[in-house]
């Protein structure tokens, strides 16, 4: 059994490694007193979110170990890059991917130095980070990605830390409702952990400043069983035990609602309480780098040293810089390590899509220009057969336009996914359906991204007029793909396919009420190695 | 006193006029039996949402009349264009704006014929529609627009119908939280009316298929007092009385939470029950045009005639086609008519922004290339003085980047708007602040659009990397501006100003973790009469 002592040791180690990444060029084990030349010339990174992220990692590891639970981790506040890197390094997967960053003092020095440094690693969670499918950067998509990863992975739990700032974004606010399209048996489970550290950049967050009773109603209204946890190992451990029992009950059909956790921690927890006479820990001032003058200000330098020593590194790492067994006791084995899960390197799991011969769907033309046929109706029949041939690895997403896009042949073989009330007049609605329809282009895109990044296939059908809604998401995904191509261990994932319909230049009905056709412009400014555009011959 | 009889008469008249717009070319008063040649050759429009929209209009008019309440109406399901046009025609404002569409039989014929017809009016709510500030088309922004309109309009109530489909979008899902930035005294009130007609295009909606108790928790979690109303005049009237008493109590500081209404109606209410053996009223089949074969299918033609006659037009319009007094009894006078409110033609209320002389903020350069200064810090001082000079008509929006964009001088004269918990360590946070910060670019953009369209001024400051998030919103707003320029009675509104910072080409820190700079591409494909881009001399 892992005790909270072990968890605490792991947590302290991860925090130590995170602070080291933000500040240190050298002297990684603090074997000598900190001197200005050990400090990076330009301090970058986000400390505030980090201790919460590491806290959750540490506790989930115990669950994985005890229950053999298949799990991945999505860090909504992906600006907490140091936390994810620290975790991967402690689990050994960092050194497996990057042998030069070995699990010893030399590797630790490299780990610290490379962070947010010219030629080094990004300050945000990125494709470079083992165990990640979720880019840090533009916030709002973590929970949609989490659900996308959970679909058709019945044994998987996707732990998803949602920042309370991130929770203010529109895409995140609607993502909670993804549970209405989740199939309890065929899909996995998403465990949202709302990280209520109270602040975004310079402001408090809305969800941290409404009465707790209101917050709990909100979560219940979204269809979850909320559990509030304070900044305490004991509370977190006990709650996770309950939560995973509830998940098991849900999977066995003994519970109708899945749990979620509201985790209250002080922002920048365990960091400096006060700097230059101003409160830092537990305020917005902890968001980025709490001590900014470390190289020039001896007082700041001393505070940094005291802060890092407060984790008692000598108890956590041996003289060679290797994490001691007490720290690693809760670390799972092999692919159960969240930083080494094949689900987070979806290309490893990717099986080619089984495609029927497209020639068989050709429209017979007896006399030229005598008959007409609807191209998307023909495509619908093809997609129907794609779905039938790939019953667990292909999904069709759309904001309720699948029928009006004339793809309805798909309903001959499948339904729309639905896990809420059904009435006698409904058609093609059932749990487990391969068609995902919700009036949110953000959810369609986010689910599909999560689904693809975990090694599956899909198509998003959308009116061209409204696809601009996901311009920014598309950009972020394209960036992920581009960066991944340069990372040898990232296996290629399936393409993100769009079918744009109801084009702006053939719009009798909605006409100018709809948007401009510029999505192609947004797409075409990417490299051909990342995107391809196919237009019909008469476009 | 207006009775529910009067309300019902108005409602029937509005429904009759809506159906007429969708179907009829001629014979507007049904003075002769309907014949195929009275029917439009191509049937377009959205019936399903219409009876709910007209129901709400009819009931709100009573409140306006009884309480002298200043109110505007935002139709989230703006595809219900016929409802808004019918309302404006009944209130007389349509004929004031478009004298050729007079309030008589000839005008009614024109009204019907022009709808969604070549050279006619759009099928969606648009700038052409009197009383509207909210484009029908891309869904999701109604509630953000409503809050934008309410800010700094202390006597205004903005009634906002939110489609239950629309409610699934991300921007709408987070818009509910706008109440946390509303000032009870200096701002007006938004009354959200969630129109639970159960369906979007071909699917049920999520909010209609979760248990009602869960829906109510969701609304309470968003910080509202929900009231559920069924499809009944009596229920709606009684609830509106309660709701406006609650609003009065809130304005007097006697209530902490504002009300909202959940209105359950059958989709396509009062339309055909069944068509070709399939249920229509109360199902998704009512979404667009329930009877599609009217010109060719005598049975459909007869059903349409029976449907239209079910409103008893002979009781509603006199022989000249003028609405009879019983229909108009509840229609308010002059600018209290929602279709004639100056707030919905904001240019009428627009006062020029008082700007200090920008030369006074010039940075003194003693020796060229010897000193450096931060341009946005200088701009911050300018904006501080703009805010001070325009205390009720200028707001600064941003996703919590105002300080990191170096505009913090504004906090010398104002605060961030906040109407939730405040802690001792908080800074520059108070109700009534002119700076609106929330981690949602959608809300920043939506609030600002609503604020501008009701005749005020503002600036949105945003990292360039993330402004793609509102590409589609920007497009829709640009479209509104472009269409408005061709409508003589639409007075010009103030420009939508962006300050883009943290440019992608000067990004040491977040660097490639952030997005592409293509927002300028999206903007520049609009006409110069609609957009202008200013770049710093060193760009
Ligand atoms: C869409 C978007 N807008 C703005 C930002 C800039 N930004 C970076 S971090 C941050 C605050 C995040 O707050 P939260 O999600 O609560 O994370 P934490 O407090 O744990 O750092 C903001 C606004 C962003 N990354 N993405
Ligand atoms: C962002 C966006 N995606 C898709 C559409 C296409 N669309 C038009 S109407 C509609 C359904 C709207 O449902 P709801 O808001 O409930 O309105 P109602 O049922 O009252 O018509 C959809 C999906 C749209 N207009 N905007």
Automatic annotation (TrEMBL), chains A, B:
Span of domain Xylulose 5-phosphate/Fructose 6-phosphate phosphoketolase N-terminal: 5-348
Biological-process GO terms, alphabetical: carbohydrate metabolic process
InterPro entries the record matches: THDP-binding, Xul5P/Fru6P_PKetolase, Xul5P/Fru6P_PKetolase_CS, Xul5P/Fru6P_PKetolase_N, Xul5P/Fru6P_PKetolase_ThDP_BS
Pfam families: XFP, XFP_N
Gene3D superfamilies the UniProt entry points to: 3.40.50.970
PROSITE patterns reported for this sequence: PHOSPHOKETOLASE_1 (PS60002), PHOSPHOKETOLASE_2 (PS60003)
GO molecular function, one term: aldehyde-lyase activity
Protein name: Phosphoketolase
Organism: Nonomuraea phyllanthi
């Amino acid at each position: 059994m892992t005790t909270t002592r072990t968890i605490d040791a792991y947590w302290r180690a991860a925090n130590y490694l995170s602070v080291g990444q933000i500040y240190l060029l050298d002297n990684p084990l603090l074997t000598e007193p900190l001197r200005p030349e050990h400090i990076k010339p330009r301090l970058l990174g986000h400390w505030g979110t980090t201790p919460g992220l590491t806290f959750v990692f540490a506790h989930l590891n115990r669950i994985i170990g005890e229950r053999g639970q298949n799990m991945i981790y999505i860090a909504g506040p992906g600006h907490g890059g140091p936390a994810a890197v620290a975790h991967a390094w402690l689990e050994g997967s960092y050194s497996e991917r990057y042998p030069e960053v070995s699990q010893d003092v030399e590797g630790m020095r490299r780990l610290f130095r490379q962070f947010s440094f010219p030629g080094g690693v990004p300050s945000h969670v990125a494709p470079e980070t083992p165990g990640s499918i979720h880019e840090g950067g533009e916030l709002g998509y973590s929970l949609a990605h989490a659900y996308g990863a959970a679909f058709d992975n019945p044994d998987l739990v996707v732990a998803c830390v949602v920042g309370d700032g991130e929770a203010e974004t529109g895409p995140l606010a609607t993502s909670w409702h993804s549970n209405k399209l989740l199939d309890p048996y065929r899909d996995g489970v998403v465990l949202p952990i709302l990280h209520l550290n109270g602040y975004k950049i310079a402001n408090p967050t809305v969800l941290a400043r409404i009465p707790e009773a209101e917050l709990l109603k909100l979560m219940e209204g979204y269809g979850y069983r909320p559990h509030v946890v304070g900044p305490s190992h004991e509370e977190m451990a006990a709650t996770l035990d309950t939560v995973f029992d509830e998940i098991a009950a849900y999977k066995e059909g003994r519970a109708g609602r899945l749990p979620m956790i509201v985790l209250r921690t002080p922002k920048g927890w365990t960091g400096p309480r006060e700097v230059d006479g101003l409160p830092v820990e537990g305020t917005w001032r902890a968001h980025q780098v709490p001590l900014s003058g470390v190289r020039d200000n001896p007082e700041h330098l001393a505070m940094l040293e005291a802060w890092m020593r407060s984790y008692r590194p000598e108890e956590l790492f041996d003289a060679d810089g290797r994490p001691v067994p007490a720290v690693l006791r809760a670390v799972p084995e092999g692919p159960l390590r969240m930083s080494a899960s094949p689900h987070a390197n979806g290309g490893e799991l990717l099986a080619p899509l089984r495609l029927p011969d497209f020639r068989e769907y050709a429209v017979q033309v007896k006399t030229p220009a005598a008959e007409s046929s609807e191209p998307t109706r023909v495509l619908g029949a093809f997609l129907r057969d794609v779905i039938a041939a790939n019953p667990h690895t292909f999904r069709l997403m759309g904001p309720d336009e699948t029928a009006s896009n004339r793809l309805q042949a798909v309903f001959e073989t499948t339904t729309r996914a639905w896990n809420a009330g059904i009435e006698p007049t409904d058609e093609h609605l059932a749990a487990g359906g391969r068609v995902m329809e919700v009036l949110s282009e953000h959810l369609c895109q986010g689910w599909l991204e999560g689904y693809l990044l975990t090694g599956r296939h899909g198509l998003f059908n959308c009116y061209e007029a409204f696809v601009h809604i996901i311009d920014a998401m598309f950009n972020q995904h394209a960036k992920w793909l581009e960066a991944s191509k340069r990372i040898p261990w990232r296996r290629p994932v399936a393409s993100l396919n769009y079918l744009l319909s109801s084009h702006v230049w053939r719009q009798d009905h909605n006409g100018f009420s709809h948007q401009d056709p510029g999505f192609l412009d947004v797409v075409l400014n990417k490299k051909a190695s990342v995107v391809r555009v196919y237009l019909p011959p008469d476009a």
